[in-house]
Amino acid sequence: MLSMAFGIGVLLALSGSTATNGCNASQQLVSKLVQLMKDFAEVEAMPIPSLLLALNLVRDTSDYAHKWLLQWIKEVAVTRAQKDLTSGEVALYVLSLFSSCQDPWHVQAFGKTIDLVQVLQQKTDEEVAKLVADGIPKSTLYSVSLDALALCLARAGGYRVASVLLAKQVLSPDSQLSVDTRAVAALAMTCTYRQMDLQDLKHLLWKALSNVTNSFLNEQEKRGGMIGNIYSMGLALQALESTQEFYAPRKWNSTQACNVVFKHDYNQSMAIAQVLPALVGVTYLDVADLNCTTNNITVNYTITNTLPGTPFSYNTTVHVLAGSVLLKVLERAQEEEPDNFSFQTKPTSWGPMVISIHGLAADPDRGTYWQFLGDGVPLQEGVGTYKPRNGEHIQANFTIYKGKGESTMEGIKTYL
Length: 416
Ligand SMILES: *[C@@H]1O[C@H](CO)[C@@H](O)[C@H](O)[C@H]1NC(C)=O
Ligand SMILES: *[C@@H]1O[C@H](CO)[C@@H](O)[C@H](O)[C@H]1NC(C)=O
Ligand SMILES: *[C@@H]1O[C@H](CO)[C@@H](O)[C@H](O)[C@H]1NC(C)=O
Ligand SMILES: *[C@@H]1O[C@H](CO)[C@@H](O)[C@H](O)[C@H]1NC(C)=O
Ligand SMILES: *[C@@H]1O[C@H](CO)[C@@H](O)[C@H](O)[C@H]1NC(C)=O
Ligand SMILES: *[C@@H]1O[C@H](CO)[C@@H](O)[C@H](O)[C@H]1NC(C)=O
Ligand SMILES: *[C@@H]1O[C@H](CO)[C@@H](O)[C@H](O)[C@H]1NC(C)=O
Ligand SMILES: *[C@@H]1O[C@H](CO)[C@@H](O)[C@H](O)[C@H]1NC(C)=O
Ligand SMILES: *[C@@H]1O[C@H](CO)[C@@H](O)[C@H](O)[C@H]1NC(C)=O
Ligand SMILES: *[C@@H]1O[C@H](CO)[C@@H](O)[C@H](O)[C@H]1NC(C)=O
What we know:
Bound molecules: 2-acetamido-2-deoxy-beta-D-glucopyranose
Largest sheet: 5 strands, mixed
Number of strands: 10
Strand order of the largest sheet: 4-3-10-8-9
């Protein structure tokens, strides 16, 4: 179960991802490329999520093209993500939705809802399993790099393993990874590096990141600014833009690399979509920093005890980031009203378990426990994995195991 993410909250406050160089392209060039990209989007047979991602990163979100592309992406996500898309394609869908301030955990279209992050985790697990077993992924290492990047930015489980495997591939003398693959792998490993505290693994990622960035810089110096070919420049620029710490104290002459891009007349949608962020000095890592107040969801939370003893009931309304696990709701309620919503958990092999709320503790001997319900239906998942929906009413109800027959009565008696 590589993708279990017990208790890992969605912490979007990325530090250190702010780009400092950038190509400082003229607004005129940016507008021209944005228009070209929109024209291309209209004649495609399938939506290209990279285009939406680029529009969001350059903050060109107000017109019809953006709305239409977003809707199309949602429609394809609910109808085809599971069976027709590769892991890397799903990763780009997740990134494009995320950058549009949409909730990739609950994508809705045609009256259907899909958890696209879960689809991505499942597909990433398959890639990783094959990579571990056979030394090659199910699709490509480029896809696996996108998977790790999207999962890391969403703070969903599974990206650490994928990033570590990518680092090993980068450092293996036998692997011949393209510039595109190494660039996206560098973005994914950077995100992971900033999230990780295991020193051994950080060291491995550091080595791989230092290798990729220095080899890009070497190539740029040798080839007058070019890294790979003109179509890989967008991703290479994004990678160098966001990884200064791994090639410091060496400096990057971004002017030289940007000049190569400026001189080319791009006429291919994907290349434009990848180069546009770099032209304005942002990268895919900045997706997590986009100002999405609509990424918040509202959850009503009620705690109730009707069993003999001290009956109580408190309710509150909290705002958490879309995709947060239930534990975040409990934590937010506790932060805001510690007197009413204090709680305690204990770690179990299934993740954190709530053992006490408002000072009232579960008692296995009496069969009492805190049961969680979502809109009145008992939850099948733990607080560390269940992700409440916007507007959902979560109840924590102090109750007694059903089916204990007489022992239920016993439970109550003992409780008294
Ligand atoms: C970016 O370019 C504009 C003019 O095109 C200039 O005024 C500005 O100082 C430049 N900024 C940086 C950081 O180079
Ligand atoms: C990166 O690692 C590869 C494989 O070990 C090696 O061949 C290459 O020289 C390294 N490049 C740099 C710049 O360290
Ligand atoms: C960076 O590259 C540009 C263009 O090739 C060159 O004119 C400039 O001197 C370089 N800057 C540094 C600091 O090396
Ligand atoms: C871009 O490429 C298409 C064909 O791929 C061609 O029809 C069009 O004229 C080109 N546009 C420019 C501005 O080069
Ligand atoms: C985010 O957007 C809101 C509403 O547009 C604005 O009030 C707020 O200052 C912005 N925050 C940041 C950090 O840009
Ligand atoms: C949640 O609480 C708010 C007021 O705090 C209320 O207006 C709303 O109807 C409640 N929603 C549900 C589903 O209970
Ligand atoms: C708590 O519940 C009461 C009664 O259902 C309701 O009037 C009130 O708005 C709720 N408060 C919050 C903060 O949800
Ligand atoms: C959105 O949620 C964040 C994190 O929970 C919180 O800090 C912020 O105040 C919320 N904003 C709104 C507008 O509810
Ligand atoms: C606890 O709940 C009560 C009743 O809902 C409310 O009056 C009180 O303000 C809450 N305590 C805190 C610290 O918010
Ligand atoms: C809450 O628990 C009590 C005691 O077991 C039970 O009578 C009641 O039906 C429960 N409420 C819900 C909404 O399940």
